[in-house]
């Protein structure tokens, strides 16, 4: 039996979890089976069933601490990392990031409520979004949550509210800095085709407009240039651009105290990915902002960043149970699992790659070239495929598969397509597992269905 080289044997970087494929507490037990957070995955599935989302507390905390530590080390002014809750929003996540001293950003009343319920202090929450409802804006203002103005419509409504309550409102604005960013490339453009934020070319008009309002005080700038970014230069450029915008705003009498540079640091989903560390990313932005402020003789603003994926993705895994096999001779063997695009819409939406292993045979002992599988989800959709081709050891119905890097944009983007209930989520730490999201049942899904009276016989 030949043991193949495996990502499970790679050295784990405990300081920057985004550089690993697996949670930092991943180990292989003496029986050769996978465990995370000191918990046997097989035992967890016996207790909580599958599919199952699992979050590793140590990996989560290390990610939060890495951002805090790096900002303290590299940025001499005030700073605040805020967790982009869209990556994975729950009362638990809000509570955990807050316990590590992070703030949080939200884009809906639902995410705001979740943050408040999770104990995030109001003054550490910011509210984004390109189409906030009146109710959402009022909710944020009532709760003293800072609103990031995305467009003229936001501005008009905040102006009205501030006048009607006769109170000054501090606002931030989001702008598109003309940096377009993808995982492996970026371009600088004069303007940027995006639904979010004000075009950088309109900022002077905007600054003038805000300075004519009675009660709106512009205190912060925000930009976000993309996600799953592996290069450092785009954020170096962004730091400089944002400081230049502080200067422009000053010409209209606005005193910018906060710079929010967004999120975007990539993570290692597969062996081909090599993202920078959290420390390198923070250092790049901090150095760029400090240098530009020095050049223009400006006081250092409070530096905020908004990581989502690099906080929670590597901490999360999803466990599936194998059901049906379908061999198409000479073409492929489909192996179907008990979840798919409803618990992880990223492969069908973005053609995203992941790494996976068998829980009972993580090192793929006894793999040979015949053991290439296509892992299909259970949804009634041909594109519901989690892995187009993956090498696994011989496996059979009932075996468990662990997919790594599923902590971000899986649970939060999940759906009930085909009326499939959402999985449970458990937190693991020091050999203990605790439920953080109950499993839905098919009956739960009927809760909001209404049959009008006249259809009832
Ligand atoms: C405004 C904003 N901030 C932060 C983030 C988090 O980005 P990431 O998860 O790549 O760190 C996003 C994600 O797209 C975003 O839209």
What is this entry, summarized?
With 457 residues, the chain is an alpha/beta fold. Helices cover 26% and strands 24% of the residues.
Please give the radius of gyration in angstroms.
Answer: 24 Å
Total strand segments: 23
Distance N to C terminus: 66 Å
Give the overall shape, derived from the CA principal axes. globular
Please give a structural write-up.
It is a single chain. By secondary structure, the protein is of the alpha/beta class. The protein folds into 2 domains: 7-56 and 313-445, Lyase, Ornithine Decarboxylase, Chain A, domain 1 (Beta Barrel); 58-308, Alpha-Beta Barrel (TIM Barrel). The chain has helices at 41-48, 57-74, 91-99, 109-117, 134-142, 152-165, 203-211, 233-250, 278-295, 309-312, 346-350; strands at 27-28, 34-36, 39-40, 52-56, 79-84, 103-106, 125-127, 146-149, 169-176, 179-181, 186-188, 198-199, 216-222, 258-260, 302-305, 316-328, 332-337, 356-358, 372-376, 385-391, 400-404, 424-429, 432-437. The strands form 4 sheets. Strands 4, 16, 17, 18, 19, 20, 21, 22 and 23 form a 9-stranded mixed sheet that branches. α2 packs parallel to α9 (278-295), α3 crosses α4 (109-117) and α8 (233-250) packs parallel to α9. The model has no long low-confidence stretch (mean pLDDT 95).
């Amino acid at each position: 039996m030949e043991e193949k080289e495996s990502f499970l044997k790679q050295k784990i970087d405990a300081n920057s979890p985004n550089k690993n494929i697996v949670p930092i507490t991943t180990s292989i037990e003496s029986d050769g089976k996978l465990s995370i957070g000191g918990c046997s995955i097989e035992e967890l599935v016996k207790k909580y069933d599958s599919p199952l989302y699992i979050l590793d507390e140590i990996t989560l905390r290390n990610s939060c601490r890495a951002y805090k530590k790096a900002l303290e080390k590299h940025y001499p002014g005030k700073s605040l990392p805020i967790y982009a809750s869209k990556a994975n929003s729950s009362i638990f996540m809000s509570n955990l990031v807050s316990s590590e001293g992070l703030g949080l950003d939200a884009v809906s009343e639902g995410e705001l409520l979740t943050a408040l319920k999770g104990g995030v202090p109001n003054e550490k929450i910011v509210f984004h979004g390109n189409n906030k409802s009146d109710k959402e804006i009022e909710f944020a203002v009532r709760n003293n949550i800072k609103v990031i103005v995305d467009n003229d419509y936001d501005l008009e409504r905040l102006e009205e509210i501030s006048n009607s309550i006769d109170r000054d409102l501090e606002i931030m604005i989001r702008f598109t800095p003309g940096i377009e960013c993808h995982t492996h490339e970026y371009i600088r453009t004069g303007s940027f085709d995006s639904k979010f934020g004000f075009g950088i070319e309109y900022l002077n008009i905007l600054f003038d407009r805000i300075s004519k309002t009675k009660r709106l005080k512009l205190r912060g700038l925000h930009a976000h240039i993309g996600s799953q970014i592996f290069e450092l230069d785009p954020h170096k450029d962004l730091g400089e651009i944002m400081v230049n915008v502080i200067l422009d705003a000053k010409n209209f009498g606005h005193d910018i105290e906060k710079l929010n540079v967004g999120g975007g640091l990539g993570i290692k989903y597969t062996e081909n990915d090599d993202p920078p560390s959290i420390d390198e990313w923070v250092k790049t932005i901090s150095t760029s902002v400090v240098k530009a402020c020095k050049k223009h003789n400006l006081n250092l603003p409070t530096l905020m960043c908004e990581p989502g994926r690099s906080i929670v993705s590597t901490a999360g895994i999803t466990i599936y149970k194998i059901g049906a096999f379908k061999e198409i001779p000479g073409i492929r063997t489909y192996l179907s699992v008990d979840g798919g695009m409803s618990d992880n819409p990223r492969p069908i939406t973005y053609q995203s790659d992941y790494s996976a292993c068998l829980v009972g045979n993580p090192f793929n002992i006894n793999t040979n070239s015949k053991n290439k599988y296509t892992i299909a989800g259970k949804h009634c959709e041909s594109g519901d495929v989690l892995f187009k081709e993956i090498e696994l050891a011989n496996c059979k119905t009932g075996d468990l598969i662990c997919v790594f890097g599923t902590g971000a944009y899986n649970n939060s983007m999940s759906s009930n397509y085909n009326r499939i209930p959402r999985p449970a989520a458990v937190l693991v730490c020091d050999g203990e597992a605790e439920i953080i999201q109950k499993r839905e049942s098919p009956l739960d899904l009927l809760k909001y269905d209404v049959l009008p009276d006249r259809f009832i016989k």
